Amino acid sequence: MHIERLFAEHFRNLETIEWWPHRHFNLVSGDNGQGKTNLLEAIAVAASLRSFRTSKLGDCLAFAEKEATLGLRIERRGLQEDLGVRITPGHKKLFLDGKAATSMTSYLGRLVVVLFAPTDLALPHAEPTERRRWLDRLAFNHEPAHLADLRRYEQALANRNALLRQHKGAQVDVGLLEAFDQVLAHSGMKLIARRQRILQRFAPILRDAFERIAAPGLTADVRYQPRDEVDDEVQLQRLFLTHRSRDLARGHTTRGPHRDDVDLRIADRTAAMHASQGQCRALVLAMKIAEIRSLEADFGEPPVLLMDDISSELDAARNRALMGYLDELGGQVFLTTTDAAHIRVAAPRQVFLMQSGQLTETGRFDRTSPPESSTGVT
Predict the structure, then answer these.
(1) Full domain range(s) for residue 152
(2) Which residues, including other chains, have CB under 8 Å from residue 230's CB and lie 6 or more apart?
Protein backbone atom coordinates (compact mmCIF):
# COMPACT_ATOMS: atom_id res chain seq x y z
CA MET A 1 0.00 0.00 0.00
CA HIS A 2 1.17 3.52 -0.66
CA ILE A 3 0.01 7.12 -0.96
CA GLU A 4 -0.17 8.49 -4.50
CA ARG A 5 -1.41 11.97 -3.61
CA LEU A 6 -1.79 14.09 -0.48
CA PHE A 7 -3.94 17.19 -0.24
CA ALA A 8 -4.00 19.38 2.87
CA GLU A 9 -5.66 22.75 3.39
CA HIS A 10 -5.71 24.85 6.58
CA PHE A 11 -4.14 22.01 8.56
CA ARG A 12 -1.74 23.54 11.10
CA ASN A 13 0.66 25.67 9.00
CA LEU A 14 0.00 23.68 5.80
CA GLU A 15 -2.04 26.40 4.13
CA THR A 16 -2.54 24.49 0.87
CA ILE A 17 -0.44 21.51 -0.19
CA GLU A 18 -0.98 19.12 -3.09
CA TRP A 19 1.77 16.51 -3.18
CA TRP A 20 2.53 13.41 -5.24
CA PRO A 21 5.11 11.63 -3.07
CA HIS A 22 7.61 9.01 -4.18
CA ARG A 23 6.33 5.45 -4.12
CA HIS A 24 9.24 4.33 -1.94
CA PHE A 25 11.21 6.89 0.06
CA ASN A 26 10.43 10.53 0.79
CA LEU A 27 12.96 12.60 2.70
CA VAL A 28 11.67 15.94 3.99
CA SER A 29 14.32 18.22 5.48
CA GLY A 30 14.06 21.67 7.00
CA ASP A 31 14.55 23.66 10.16
CA ASN A 32 12.39 23.15 13.23
CA GLY A 33 9.00 24.85 13.13
CA GLN A 34 8.61 24.75 9.34
CA GLY A 35 5.88 22.10 9.21
CA LYS A 36 7.66 18.76 8.76
CA THR A 37 5.87 17.07 11.67
CA ASN A 38 2.59 18.68 10.58
CA LEU A 39 2.95 16.86 7.26
CA LEU A 40 3.30 13.48 8.98
CA GLU A 41 0.44 14.33 11.31
CA ALA A 42 -1.80 15.12 8.32
CA ILE A 43 -1.09 11.66 6.87
CA ALA A 44 -1.74 9.98 10.23
CA VAL A 45 -5.03 11.82 10.76
CA ALA A 46 -6.27 11.09 7.25
CA ALA A 47 -5.42 7.40 7.70
CA SER A 48 -6.47 6.73 11.30
CA LEU A 49 -8.63 9.74 12.29
CA ARG A 50 -6.33 10.22 15.28
CA SER A 51 -3.47 12.63 15.82
CA PHE A 52 -0.28 11.54 17.57
CA ARG A 53 0.02 15.03 19.09
CA THR A 54 -3.44 15.93 20.41
CA SER A 55 -6.67 14.24 21.44
CA LYS A 56 -8.75 16.99 19.80
CA LEU A 57 -8.61 17.24 16.02
CA GLY A 58 -9.90 20.80 16.29
CA ASP A 59 -6.43 21.71 17.58
CA CYS A 60 -5.10 20.94 14.09
CA LEU A 61 -6.95 23.82 12.43
CA ALA A 62 -4.78 26.63 11.13
CA PHE A 63 -4.97 29.84 13.13
CA ALA A 64 -8.28 31.70 12.65
CA GLU A 65 -9.60 28.97 10.31
CA LYS A 66 -12.91 27.17 10.96
CA GLU A 67 -12.29 24.14 8.76
CA ALA A 68 -9.42 21.97 7.58
CA THR A 69 -9.48 19.46 4.73
CA LEU A 70 -7.29 16.40 4.18
CA GLY A 71 -7.33 14.09 1.19
CA LEU A 72 -5.35 10.98 0.25
CA ARG A 73 -5.33 8.98 -2.94
CA ILE A 74 -4.01 5.57 -2.02
CA GLU A 75 -3.22 2.35 -3.83
CA ARG A 76 -3.73 -0.93 -2.04
CA ARG A 77 -3.50 -4.34 -3.67
CA GLY A 78 -3.60 -2.71 -7.08
CA LEU A 79 -6.77 -0.69 -6.42
CA GLN A 80 -7.03 3.08 -6.03
CA GLU A 81 -9.15 4.77 -3.37
CA ASP A 82 -9.68 8.37 -2.29
CA LEU A 83 -9.93 9.12 1.43
CA GLY A 84 -11.05 12.50 2.72
CA VAL A 85 -11.57 14.18 6.08
CA ARG A 86 -13.17 17.55 6.75
CA ILE A 87 -12.36 18.80 10.25
CA THR A 88 -14.26 21.46 12.17
CA PRO A 89 -14.12 22.13 15.92
CA GLY A 90 -15.69 19.14 17.66
CA HIS A 91 -16.65 17.37 14.43
CA LYS A 92 -15.24 15.55 11.41
CA LYS A 93 -16.84 14.37 8.18
CA LEU A 94 -15.43 11.42 6.27
CA PHE A 95 -15.40 10.75 2.53
CA LEU A 96 -14.66 7.67 0.44
CA ASP A 97 -14.13 8.17 -3.29
CA GLY A 98 -15.77 11.59 -3.06
CA LYS A 99 -18.91 10.40 -1.26
CA ALA A 100 -19.77 10.67 2.43
CA ALA A 101 -18.60 7.55 4.29
CA THR A 102 -21.42 5.51 5.79
CA SER A 103 -19.53 4.99 9.06
CA MET A 104 -16.16 5.36 10.71
CA THR A 105 -15.77 1.58 10.52
CA SER A 106 -16.14 1.62 6.74
CA TYR A 107 -13.40 4.27 6.53
CA LEU A 108 -10.78 2.89 8.89
CA GLY A 109 -8.22 0.25 7.94
CA ARG A 110 -7.90 1.21 4.30
CA LEU A 111 -4.48 2.79 4.85
CA VAL A 112 -2.27 1.47 7.64
CA VAL A 113 0.51 3.74 8.94
CA VAL A 114 3.21 3.16 11.54
CA LEU A 115 4.66 6.19 13.32
CA PHE A 116 8.20 6.33 14.72
CA ALA A 117 8.85 9.54 16.66
CA PRO A 118 11.66 10.60 19.05
CA THR A 119 9.31 10.25 22.03
CA ASP A 120 9.02 6.52 21.24
CA LEU A 121 12.66 6.04 22.22
CA ALA A 122 11.71 6.77 25.84
CA LEU A 123 8.97 4.11 25.83
CA PRO A 124 10.68 1.69 28.26
CA HIS A 125 11.04 4.48 30.86
CA ALA A 126 7.77 6.28 30.10
CA GLU A 127 4.58 6.24 32.14
CA PRO A 128 2.27 3.23 31.61
CA THR A 129 -0.11 5.54 29.73
CA GLU A 130 2.42 5.83 26.88
CA ARG A 131 2.95 2.07 26.62
CA ARG A 132 -0.81 1.47 26.60
CA ARG A 133 -1.14 4.06 23.86
CA TRP A 134 1.51 2.25 21.81
CA LEU A 135 -0.23 -1.09 22.33
CA ASP A 136 -3.65 0.30 21.42
CA ARG A 137 -2.22 1.78 18.19
CA LEU A 138 -0.71 -1.61 17.39
CA ALA A 139 -4.01 -3.35 18.10
CA PHE A 140 -5.98 -0.79 16.07
CA ASN A 141 -3.69 -1.19 13.05
CA HIS A 142 -4.17 -4.95 13.12
CA GLU A 143 -7.88 -4.86 14.00
CA PRO A 144 -9.59 -1.48 13.32
CA ALA A 145 -12.56 -2.48 15.53
CA HIS A 146 -10.27 -1.89 18.51
CA LEU A 147 -10.67 1.87 18.12
CA ALA A 148 -14.45 1.75 18.55
CA ASP A 149 -14.13 -0.43 21.67
CA LEU A 150 -11.48 1.89 23.08
CA ARG A 151 -13.63 4.96 22.51
CA ARG A 152 -16.65 3.34 24.14
CA TYR A 153 -14.53 2.44 27.15
CA GLU A 154 -12.96 5.90 27.38
CA GLN A 155 -16.36 7.63 27.14
CA ALA A 156 -17.89 5.41 29.83
CA LEU A 157 -14.83 5.94 32.00
CA ALA A 158 -15.05 9.72 31.62
CA ASN A 159 -18.76 9.64 32.53
CA ARG A 160 -18.16 7.40 35.55
CA ASN A 161 -15.33 9.61 36.79
CA ALA A 162 -17.51 12.71 36.40
CA LEU A 163 -20.21 11.03 38.49
CA LEU A 164 -17.65 10.07 41.14
CA ARG A 165 -16.32 13.63 41.31
CA GLN A 166 -19.84 15.05 41.68
CA HIS A 167 -20.56 12.74 44.63
CA LYS A 168 -18.85 14.86 47.32
CA GLY A 169 -20.53 13.06 50.18
CA ALA A 170 -24.01 13.14 48.65
CA GLN A 171 -25.99 10.05 47.74
CA VAL A 172 -24.61 8.65 44.49
CA ASP A 173 -26.94 7.44 41.72
CA VAL A 174 -26.19 3.72 42.07
CA GLY A 175 -28.25 2.78 39.01
CA LEU A 176 -26.28 5.14 36.78
CA LEU A 177 -23.00 3.96 38.26
CA GLU A 178 -23.92 0.34 37.55
CA ALA A 179 -24.85 1.23 33.99
CA PHE A 180 -21.40 2.71 33.44
CA ASP A 181 -19.85 -0.37 35.05
CA GLN A 182 -21.65 -2.62 32.58
CA VAL A 183 -20.34 -0.66 29.59
CA LEU A 184 -16.83 -0.61 31.07
CA ALA A 185 -16.91 -4.37 31.71
CA HIS A 186 -18.21 -5.18 28.22
CA SER A 187 -15.84 -2.96 26.23
CA GLY A 188 -12.99 -3.41 28.74
CA MET A 189 -12.87 -7.19 28.30
CA LYS A 190 -12.70 -6.68 24.53
CA LEU A 191 -9.71 -4.38 25.02
CA ILE A 192 -7.96 -6.83 27.33
CA ALA A 193 -8.55 -9.84 25.07
CA ARG A 194 -7.38 -8.00 21.95
CA ARG A 195 -4.31 -6.53 23.65
CA GLN A 196 -3.27 -9.98 24.87
CA ARG A 197 -3.93 -11.61 21.51
CA ILE A 198 -1.95 -9.00 19.58
CA LEU A 199 1.05 -9.18 21.91
CA GLN A 200 1.14 -12.97 21.76
CA ARG A 201 1.48 -12.74 17.98
CA PHE A 202 3.86 -9.78 18.17
CA ALA A 203 6.37 -11.12 20.75
CA PRO A 204 8.17 -13.72 18.54
CA ILE A 205 8.53 -11.17 15.72
CA LEU A 206 10.05 -8.70 18.20
CA ARG A 207 12.49 -11.31 19.49
CA ASP A 208 13.71 -12.01 15.96
CA ALA A 209 14.10 -8.30 15.11
CA PHE A 210 15.98 -7.60 18.34
CA GLU A 211 18.47 -10.40 17.66
CA ARG A 212 19.48 -8.62 14.44
CA ILE A 213 20.03 -5.26 16.10
CA ALA A 214 21.34 -5.91 19.62
CA ALA A 215 24.52 -7.48 20.94
CA PRO A 216 24.87 -11.25 20.45
CA GLY A 217 23.22 -13.25 23.19
CA LEU A 218 20.73 -10.58 24.25
CA THR A 219 17.04 -11.42 24.06
CA ALA A 220 13.93 -9.25 24.14
CA ASP A 221 10.32 -9.88 25.04
CA VAL A 222 7.06 -8.00 25.53
CA ARG A 223 4.20 -9.03 27.83
CA TYR A 224 0.82 -7.67 28.74
CA GLN A 225 0.82 -6.68 32.42
CA PRO A 226 -2.71 -6.35 33.81
CA ARG A 227 -3.05 -4.76 37.21
CA ASP A 228 -5.83 -7.22 38.03
CA GLU A 229 -6.36 -10.68 36.59
CA VAL A 230 -9.92 -10.97 35.28
CA ASP A 231 -11.25 -13.64 32.93
CA ASP A 232 -14.64 -12.31 31.87
CA GLU A 233 -17.09 -9.41 32.05
CA VAL A 234 -18.62 -10.65 35.30
CA GLN A 235 -15.26 -10.57 37.07
CA LEU A 236 -14.40 -7.15 35.66
CA GLN A 237 -17.75 -5.70 36.72
CA ARG A 238 -17.26 -7.24 40.17
CA LEU A 239 -13.87 -5.51 40.31
CA PHE A 240 -15.52 -2.11 39.78
CA LEU A 241 -18.05 -2.93 42.51
CA THR A 242 -15.38 -4.08 44.98
CA HIS A 243 -13.47 -0.82 44.63
CA ARG A 244 -16.52 1.47 44.47
CA SER A 245 -16.02 2.92 47.97
CA ARG A 246 -12.41 3.75 47.23
CA ASP A 247 -13.37 5.25 43.86
CA LEU A 248 -15.99 7.46 45.53
CA ALA A 249 -13.44 8.64 48.08
CA ARG A 250 -10.83 9.44 45.44
CA GLY A 251 -13.15 10.75 42.75
CA HIS A 252 -11.91 8.50 39.95
CA THR A 253 -11.91 4.87 38.78
CA THR A 254 -8.91 3.13 40.34
CA ARG A 255 -9.16 -0.29 38.64
CA GLY A 256 -9.65 -1.50 35.10
CA PRO A 257 -7.72 -1.94 31.82
CA HIS A 258 -7.00 1.81 31.74
CA ARG A 259 -4.49 1.08 34.53
CA ASP A 260 -2.76 -1.89 32.84
CA ASP A 261 0.81 -1.81 31.54
CA VAL A 262 3.14 -3.40 29.00
CA ASP A 263 6.25 -5.13 30.35
CA LEU A 264 9.21 -4.57 27.99
CA ARG A 265 12.03 -6.99 28.82
CA ILE A 266 15.67 -7.49 27.86
CA ALA A 267 17.49 -10.65 28.99
CA ASP A 268 14.26 -11.58 30.81
CA ARG A 269 14.45 -8.53 33.07
CA THR A 270 12.38 -5.35 32.94
CA ALA A 271 14.20 -3.05 30.50
CA ALA A 272 13.58 0.20 32.38
CA MET A 273 15.16 -1.20 35.55
CA HIS A 274 18.08 -3.22 34.23
CA ALA A 275 18.99 -2.32 30.62
CA SER A 276 21.31 0.41 29.37
CA GLN A 277 20.06 3.37 27.36
CA GLY A 278 21.56 1.89 24.20
CA GLN A 279 19.85 -1.45 24.81
CA CYS A 280 16.52 0.28 25.44
CA ARG A 281 16.82 2.23 22.21
CA ALA A 282 17.68 -0.96 20.33
CA LEU A 283 14.57 -2.53 21.85
CA VAL A 284 12.33 0.31 20.64
CA LEU A 285 13.91 0.17 17.18
CA ALA A 286 13.23 -3.58 17.10
CA MET A 287 9.63 -2.92 18.22
CA LYS A 288 9.04 -0.64 15.24
CA ILE A 289 10.59 -3.11 12.81
CA ALA A 290 8.48 -5.89 14.33
CA GLU A 291 5.38 -3.71 14.05
CA ILE A 292 5.97 -3.27 10.33
CA ARG A 293 6.67 -6.98 9.82
CA SER A 294 3.60 -8.11 11.75
CA LEU A 295 1.35 -5.77 9.76
CA GLU A 296 2.93 -6.87 6.48
CA ALA A 297 2.21 -10.49 7.44
CA ASP A 298 -1.43 -9.61 8.11
CA PHE A 299 -2.07 -7.43 5.05
CA GLY A 300 0.29 -8.95 2.50
CA GLU A 301 2.15 -5.66 1.95
CA PRO A 302 4.10 -3.31 4.24
CA PRO A 303 2.33 -0.39 5.90
CA VAL A 304 3.30 3.22 5.28
CA LEU A 305 6.07 4.27 7.67
CA LEU A 306 6.18 7.78 9.15
CA MET A 307 9.48 8.73 10.82
CA ASP A 308 9.81 12.07 12.54
CA ASP A 309 13.48 13.09 12.91
CA ILE A 310 14.49 9.78 14.47
CA SER A 311 17.98 9.42 12.97
CA SER A 312 19.35 12.41 14.88
CA GLU A 313 18.40 10.68 18.15
CA LEU A 314 20.26 7.42 17.41
CA ASP A 315 23.94 6.59 17.78
CA ALA A 316 25.90 5.71 14.64
CA ALA A 317 25.45 1.94 15.00
CA ARG A 318 21.67 2.10 15.55
CA ASN A 319 21.32 4.62 12.71
CA ARG A 320 23.19 2.28 10.32
CA ALA A 321 20.94 -0.58 11.37
CA LEU A 322 17.86 1.54 10.77
CA MET A 323 19.02 2.80 7.37
CA GLY A 324 19.87 -0.76 6.33
CA TYR A 325 16.41 -1.92 7.29
CA LEU A 326 14.76 0.93 5.39
CA ASP A 327 16.68 -0.08 2.27
CA GLU A 328 15.23 -3.60 2.61
CA LEU A 329 11.70 -2.51 3.49
CA GLY A 330 10.24 -2.10 0.02
CA GLY A 331 7.29 -0.05 1.27
CA GLN A 332 6.67 3.68 1.34
CA VAL A 333 8.54 5.78 3.88
CA PHE A 334 8.10 9.43 4.89
CA LEU A 335 11.06 10.64 6.91
CA THR A 336 11.67 14.12 8.28
CA THR A 337 14.99 15.49 9.46
CA THR A 338 16.72 18.76 10.29
CA ASP A 339 19.99 17.35 8.90
CA ALA A 340 19.84 15.29 5.72
CA ALA A 341 23.40 14.07 6.34
CA HIS A 342 21.98 11.58 8.84
CA ILE A 343 19.92 9.86 6.14
CA ARG A 344 22.09 7.47 4.17
CA VAL A 345 19.80 5.16 2.24
CA ALA A 346 20.30 3.65 -1.19
CA ALA A 347 16.62 3.08 -2.00
CA PRO A 348 14.86 5.05 -4.79
CA ARG A 349 13.82 8.33 -3.21
CA GLN A 350 12.70 11.90 -3.54
CA VAL A 351 14.14 14.74 -1.44
CA PHE A 352 12.13 17.79 -0.38
CA LEU A 353 12.70 20.96 1.57
CA MET A 354 9.97 22.19 3.91
CA GLN A 355 9.82 25.94 4.52
CA SER A 356 6.87 27.76 6.13
CA GLY A 357 4.49 24.92 5.37
CA GLN A 358 5.45 24.60 1.70
CA LEU A 359 7.34 21.75 0.00
CA THR A 360 10.01 22.16 -2.68
CA GLU A 361 11.60 19.20 -4.43
CA THR A 362 15.41 19.31 -4.28
CA GLY A 363 16.40 15.91 -5.64
CA ARG A 364 15.12 12.64 -7.09
CA PHE A 365 16.80 9.24 -7.30
CA ASP A 366 14.65 6.73 -9.17
CA ARG A 367 17.20 3.92 -9.16
CA THR A 368 18.89 2.24 -6.25
CA SER A 369 22.10 4.17 -5.65
CA PRO A 370 24.89 4.19 -3.07
CA PRO A 371 24.41 6.40 0.01
CA GLU A 372 26.68 9.14 -1.28
CA SER A 373 25.83 11.80 -3.83
CA SER A 374 27.23 14.99 -5.23
CA THR A 375 24.43 16.98 -3.60
CA GLY A 376 25.44 15.88 -0.11
CA VAL A 377 21.89 14.60 0.46
CA THR A 378 21.77 10.80 0.64
Answers:
(1) 115-302
(2) 189, 192, 236, 239
pTM of the model: 0.83
DSSP lists the bridge partners of residue 70 as 8, 85
**Is 7 part of a structural domain of the chain?**
no
In three-state form (DSSP H/G/I as H, E/B as E, the rest C), the secondary structure along 303-355 is: CEEEEECCHHHCCHHHHHHHHHHHHHHCCCEEEEECCHHHCCCCCCEEEEEEE
Contact 310, 117 (CB under 8 A): yes
Per the structure, how many domains does the chain have?
1
All residues at 6 or more sequence positions from 292 whose CB lies less than 8 Å from its CB, including other chains: 114, 302, 303, 305, 329, 331
User: Burial letters for 1-40: b for 16+ Cβ neighbours within 10 Å, e otherwise?
Assistant: bbbbebbbbbbbbbeebebebbbbbbbbbbeeebbbbbbb
Look at residue 260 and tell me if it is in a domain.
yes
The CATH number covering residue 278 comes to 1.20.1050.90
The answer as to whether 18 is a domain residue is no
Listed residue (193, 217, 194) closest to 207, CA to CA: 217
- The Cα–Cα gap between 230 and 101 comes to 37
Q: Is residue 183 part of a domain?
A: yes
Per-residue pLDDT 10s for the chain (378 aa) are 899 999 999 999 998 999 999 998 899 988 888 999 999 999 999 998 888 888 889 889 998 899 999 999 999 888 999 999 999 998 999 999 999 998 888 888 899 999 988 888 899 999 999 999 999 999 998 998 898 899 999 999 999 999 999 876 568 888 999 999 999 999 999 999 999 999 999 999 999 999 888 878 889 999 999 999 999 999 999 999 999 999 998 999 999 999 999 999 999 999 999 989 888 988 998 999 899 999 999 888 899 999 988 777 777 777 777 777 777 777 899 999 887 777 777 777 788 999 998 888 887 776 666 544 433 332
